[in-house]
Amino acid sequence: MPDSALELANVVKTYGEGSVSIPVLKEISATVATGERIALLGKSGSGKSTLLNLLGGLDRTTSGSISVFGSRLDEFTSRQMAQYRLETVGIIFQGYNLLSMKTARENVELPLIFGGFSARDRRAAAVKALDAVGLCDRLDHKPTELSGGEQQRVAIARALVNQPKLLLADEPTGNLDSSTADEVIEVLSAYVSEHATTVVLVTHDDDLAERFSDRILRIQDGQFQDNLSVAASTEADNGEVAP
C-alpha cells in the first residue's frame, strides 16, 4: 500500500457554466498519509462537503487530480468508480440515510448486496459490524425503534462493513447531544485505531477536530487556510508558536 493514502493536486470544483459558474474549490492541494486521521474544519459553505463528495467518488473534479492509494479518481470509468465506492471507501452521512422499512442488520447489509455477496456472508458481516459498534442486541430493530445515537452507530456499521481503507465522515455527531456524540466518537476511534484506517472527518466543531484527528485542514471559501498538526493548532490558539 502506498505511503500516501490521498494526494490532491490543484483540485478545482465549479458548478454551473459561463457567467453563472460558481467556484466551490479553488486549486487545493494536500497529501494525507496512510492511516492518518484528518479533520476538515470549516463553516457551512466553505467547500468541505464538496471535497468529501469528490473523495467518496460521488462527484468529479472540474480540474486537477485526486489520487487514492495510488489510483487517480479522475481517470476512473463509471464502472471503476462504482467499484471504488464498494471496495475502498466508506461514508458516514450526517443524516444517517437509513431505510426506514429495513432493520439495522438489513441496512448494514446494503453495500454488500451491491457487491454480490451471498446472503449468508452478508448477514455474518453485518452482525460483526453491528457488534463492533455495540449494537448486537439491536439487529432486528428498525430506525424508528432506535435512538439518534443508535441510528448513527448503524450508519457507522454500514460504512465499515466492507472494511474500507478510507473512511469519510460528514459531521457524524452533528445531530447528537454531547454525551451521545462522545459515545459515537469513542466507538469510531476504537475501530479506526484497530484497523489503521485512513479517515477524513468533516466538522465545524474545533473541539471534536482536536480530540479525534492527527491533523487539521482548515478550509475557507474553497481554499485551505493552513495545514497544522493538532498540537501545533492548539499551541497557536494559546498564542504560542510551534517550532
Structure explained in plain terms:
- With 243 residues, the protein is α/β, with parallel strands linked by helices.
- It is built from 8 helices and 10 strands.
- It has helices at 48-55, 78-87, 104-114, 119-132, 148-160, 178-195, 206-212, 230-237; strands at residues 4-15, 22-33, 37-41, 63-68, 71-72, 89-92, 166-170, 198-203, 215-220, 223-229.
- Strand 7 (166-170), helix 6 and strand 8 (198-203) form a beta-alpha-beta unit.
- The longest helix has 18 residues, at 178-195.
- The radius of gyration is 18 Å and the shape is globular.
- The protein starts with a strand and ends in a 6-residue tail after the last helix.
- Mean pLDDT is 88; it is low at 239-243.
Q: How would a textbook summarize the main sheet?
A: 6 strands, mixed
Architecture, CATH level 2?
3-Layer(aba) Sandwich
| CATH-assigned fold name | Rossmann fold
Span between termini: 31 Å
Q: CATH superfamily membership, which one? A: P-loop containing nucleotide triphosphate hydrolases
State the strand order across the main sheet: 6-7-8-3-9-10
The top-level CATH class is Alpha Beta
Number of domains: 1
Shape: globular
Strand portion? 25-35%
